[in-house]
Amino acid sequence: MLNFSRFFLLLALLSTHVLKAGQKDSLFVHYFENPPFSYSEGTELKGIEIDILNEYVNWLKLKKNISLKVGYKGYTDFEVFLNNVKTADKSTFGLGTLTINQERKKELDFTSPVLKNVAFCITNGHAPDVKVKTKTELLKVFGNMTAITIPNSSLNGYVLEIKKLYVPELKISYQANPQKILDEISKNVLQFGYVDAVSFWVYLKKNPGRFLKMQKALSQSKEELAFVLPKGSEHTQLFNEFFEGPNGFKFSKHYRSILEKHLGSYMTQNMAIY
Predict the structure, then answer these.
(1) CATH number, domain containing residue 51
(2) Residue 65: left (phi > 0), alpha (psi -120 to 50), or beta?
(3) Which residue in 26, 41, 116, 231 has a CA-CA distance of 20 to 30 Å to 130?
């Protein structure tokens, strides 16, 4: 008679994936198209997150004798990207400028933070200024507006906070990425939304004629950005050793040079993890 307990133990051992020195393996990278973090330019992949991940792959080969064949898949819809990482094989990385939060930790592993971030509240340049963060002021400015946001993002959390605490009747609509949010706001004085500081900076460089402004009283500066992985991935611990262990990558000149290449020195000062 088949011993089921032994059968399932054997099955578990066979299905357990362990990275070992001298082994060749695959790494599947899902990335959210969001310059300058991760993006494609023709057939070439570029961005801060892509460069850091490449350094991690090199570190595995040099320090751990683990060689990885890396495959990439890009997304322009944040929600689709996030859901696919959650259900992916454990040999998977997600690059999506994701904010570390407790709710997401229930379904995903986060690496150590790779960047700091500020989220800006953006309105059309013709909209009135929010002078102070009070219910009276926000009702006056946003009472007739529609907030545009990305589902299941930290940016959406800031919009929901405004609705809950200040503008109970706030209308909300959704877009798939920051560029589309800013496109909509630039066309309509009755729309606003949150975007990452870098996304706003990149957008203005590409679209210098768009009339947009930051509502400084509503900026959020408590974010840290990390990579995400399916729960239980061995790469979580390995990446953390690479990035913040003794002589970790975040302490290196090369880390800062990657940021400066994509952001310039001023933004690097504000976003580098120390």
Answers:
(1) 3.40.190.10
(2) left
(3) 116
pTM confidence score: 0.75
User: DSSP per residue over 79-135, as a string?
Assistant: HHHHHHHHTS-SSEEEEEEEEP-HHHHTTEEE-S--EEEEEEEEEETTSPP--S-SH
CA angle 246, 247, 250 (to 5 degrees): 110
- Does any domain span residue 29? yes
Quote the CA–CA distance of 213 and 161 in Å, as a whole number. 21
DSSP 251: G
Q: Enumerate long-range contacts of 162-165, CB under 8 Å, 24 or more apart.
A: 162/138, 162/218, 165/135
* Pairwise CA distance, residues 43 & 51, whole Å: 16
- Paired residues of 46 in beta bridges: 39
Secondary structure (3-state) at 274: coil
Alpha helix ranges (H) inside the chain: 4-15, 48-64, 78-86, 102-105, 135-142, 154-165, 178-187, 197-206, 234-244, 253-271
Residues in the chain: 274
Please count the other Cβ atoms lying within 10 Å of the Cβ belonging to residue 1: 3
pLDDT (tens digit, 9 = 90+) per residue, 97-138?
888 888 889 999 999 999 998 899 999 999 999 999 999 999
Q: Is residue 212 part of a domain?
A: yes
Q: Is the separation of the CB atoms in 170 and 193 below 8 Å?
A: no
- Domain of residue 254, residue span: 22-116+223-271
How many angstroms separate the CA atoms of 233 and 256, rounded?
A: 27
